[in-house]
Amino acid sequence: MHFIDLAAQQDRLRTGIEKRIAAVLSHGSYIMGPEVKELETALAEFCGAAHCVSCANGTDALELALIALGVGPGDAVLVPSFTFAATAEVVPGTGAVPVFVDVDLATYNMCPNSLSRAIEHARDLGLRPAVIIPVDLFGLPADYPEVSRIAEAASAVVIGDSAQGFGGSIKGQMTGTFGKITTTSFFPAKPLGCYGDGGALFTDDADLAVLLDSLRVHGKGAEKYDNVRIGRNSRLDTLQAAVLLEKLAVYGEEIEARNRIARRYTTGLSTKFATPVIPEGYRSIWAQYTLRTDTPAARDNAMSALKAAGIPSAIYYPRPLNKQTAYREFPCDPNGLPNSELAAQTVFSLPMHPYLSEADQDRVIDVLSRA
Ligand SMILES: *Cc1c(COP(=O)(O)O)cnc(C)c1O
């Protein structure tokens, strides 16, 4: 059994992907070829955003968003402490300070109360709360309605980190359309992944889209050899766009399959574990299916039982960012980050991908029920 089975998906899509790759080899436009624009149009259409700008990876997408918004020294960027490092990693380079916010223990997403406290704390430190980056952790959209309300009151801008959440929705509105900018990642193991690195940004703001397009190509202006700002090189390869076009065609169906699998896990496991909580009107894309135990020992026990049965499981994330060496010195919610720390000690994730068979799922449920 695989934790994520990319080979099963490839078996299904191989012919189409090979055709797409062959087309790129024929036209030879390896950088910013026609597939890149075609993909951007398709991605924007998929989520309902006005503009999509692709880039080299999900970390660059976050960094490009901060640069486009002019974030710099004296600014605070509020980020959850329970996330992948990239969410906070992009902040110090701009001269701004990441400020850690706790998560809600039910959804593992940014906690609005903690966010309010952290904003207050940033101000006490003489920082301007410039940007808030909620993360769609494990595929569940963040609490955008509440985060946006707090952001507005604080005159802060929201960047949604949807590296794990592209295709999720709240009352039918998809990620990519919340906040000023949304970023995503096409790292192979993400729900919509390519065969290398890739990323994208979404916005409804046409000026911002033009700025992002310039920033990802060396700060280009209208005239090729007159770069009008300091940019970087962060383009999505044409070959990766070609692969993604084939994968996007079945992505909606795959999200359905992930939801079927998640429902089945929850039915089988909710009496023994804290199963994922999906708030009313929310739709997750299940980048991870994550359980929580009462104690760290119970987690060890459950994961050992799975391992003994040859079933892979993983911990996302064993250490909150505020406890990691490079991030220890940055400010946090003054009430502490107890939920992030508890989650790090008690969560674990099960095999999850659209091609997971019911028989394999039953084995997982059976082993965990007897653990
Ligand atoms: C994967 C991930 C990123 C970074 O994406 P890359 O494409 O690997 O750079 C950023 N934020 C979160 C929450 C992620 O899971």
Please outline the helices and strands.
Layout: H1 6-27, H2 34-47, E1 51-55, H3 58-68, E2 75-80, H4 86-89, E3 97-101, H5 112-124, E4 128-132, H6 144-153, E5 157-161, E6 169-170, E7 173-174, E8 181-185, E9 199-203, H7 206-216, H8 238-248, H9 251-269, E10 282-283, E11 289-292, H10 296-308, H11 338-346, E12 347-350, H12 358-370
Parallel strand pairs: 2-3, 2-4, 4-5, 5-8
Antiparallel strand pairs: 1-9, 6-7, 6-10, 8-9, 11-12
The structure holds pyridoxal-5'-phosphate (PLP).
Pyridoxal-5'-phosphate (PLP) is lined by residues 57-59, 83-84, 86-87, 135, 161, 163-164, 185, 187, 197, 199.
Write a structural description.
- This protein is of the alpha/beta class and 371 residues long.
- Helix content is 40%, strand content 13%.
- The strands form 3 sheets. The protein has a 7-stranded mixed sheet, sandwiched between helices. Strands 7-6-10 form a 3-stranded antiparallel sheet, with no helix packed on it. A two-stranded antiparallel ribbon has the order 11-12.
- A hairpin with a 2-residue loop joins strand 6 and strand 7 (173-174).
- The two termini are 18 Å apart.
List keywords for this structure.
single chain; 371 residues; alpha/beta; Aspartate Aminotransferase, domain 2; Aspartate Aminotransferase, domain 1; 2 domains; 7-stranded mixed β-sheet; 3-stranded antiparallel β-sheet; 12 helices; 12 strands; globular; binds pyridoxal-5'-phosphate
